[in-house]
Amino acid sequence: MEPADPLRRTGVPVWDPAQYRSHAGHRLRPLHDLLARVPPLPSPRPRIADLGCGPGEPTALLAEHWPAARITGYDLSEAMLAEARAHAGPTSGGGAVDFARADLAAWHPGEPHDLIVSNAALHWCPGHITRFPDWIAALRPTGVMAFQVPGNFAAPGHTLLTDLCTSPRWRDRLGAGTRRTPVGEPAEYAETLAALGCETDVWETTYVHVLTGRDPVLEWMKGTALRPVLTALDPDAAAREAFLTEYRDLLREAYPPGPHGTLFPFRRIFAVAVRCT
């Protein structure tokens, strides 16, 4: 697994839950597709971890699927956790939801789990594939690890962002170097999980989102990939606006609006691993 790209040099990003939710339906759809492939869990009252829970909606969806489960959502962002805690408490089937702060690079399951799930978060954890042995070992027999990560780092939205960050005007503030892809390819995930004693189901899907509104791809990126950049430029408002203007103009050319909205292809990689031993 290669380290993350130069944008990660800006440190821990400051997240904006409201901005992230601006495309909530599109962001949750892959989780629905992931959970549809999760087989029955080994325990009637399963223990579930949600790694990178964000503002809590993914964790709430897990509680709908497994209302008797005890579910903990983990995130490093206090802003996200503050929003997520609105979903904490008992569930309709006698289970419970709570939230805790954790860095996924160091998170260790403190007890056996039936399901460890992550929705669009592991790419923020450099070298996350090295954490798989620890996480798989914490699963009960026939327990499941399921995750999806973006696989679109070669798409214009990302390549243009990296090119801009490494341009002469911005490289001193935002980092310079060769772009690295912070996720593996499907075959790498399948081989790694199979070697850990799992039955694997790995696939990829490209969603073609139809976005509406003014500069919708910029608004999407402001909720995720732009967070490290915006964090690094804060509180220099003039620099922030100058960067966003340059990036906006590049995105307008790469993703022109059409008669029915702006088409935004988005490749995602999915994996469901069932522990066999």
From TrEMBL:
E.C. number, please? 2.1.1.144
Locations listed in the record: Cytoplasm
**Cellular component GO terms, alphabetically?**
cytoplasm
- Record InterPro entries: Methyltransf_25 (IPR041698), SAM-dependent_MTases_sf (IPR029063), Trans-aconitate_MeTrfase (IPR023506), Trans_acon_MeTrfase_C (IPR023149)
> Which GO annotations describe the biological process of this protein?
antibiotic biosynthetic process; methylation
Instruction: Give the primary localization class.
Output: cytoplasm
Instruction: Specify the Methyltransferase domain's residue ranges.
Output: 48-143
Pfam families noted in UniProt: Methyltransf_25
Q: Which GO molecular function, any one, fits this protein according to its record? A: trans-aconitate 2-methyltransferase activity
Q: What class of enzyme is it?
A: transferase
Name the catalysed reactions: trans-aconitate + S-adenosyl-L-methionine = (E)-3-(methoxycarbonyl)pent-2-enedioate + S-adenosyl-L-homocysteine
Q: Provide this UniProt record's keywords sorted from A to Z.
A: Cytoplasm, Methyltransferase, S-adenosyl-L-methionine, Transferase
| PANTHER family from the UniProt entry | TRANS-ACONITATE 2-METHYLTRANSFERASE, TRANS-ACONITATE 2-METHYLTRANSFERASE-RELATED
Q: So what does this one do?
A: Catalyzes the S-adenosylmethionine monomethyl esterification of trans-aconitate.
Q: Which NCBIfam families match?
A: PRK14103.1
Family recorded in the similarity comment: Belongs to the methyltransferase superfamily. Tam family.
Write down what this protein is called: Trans-aconitate 2-methyltransferase
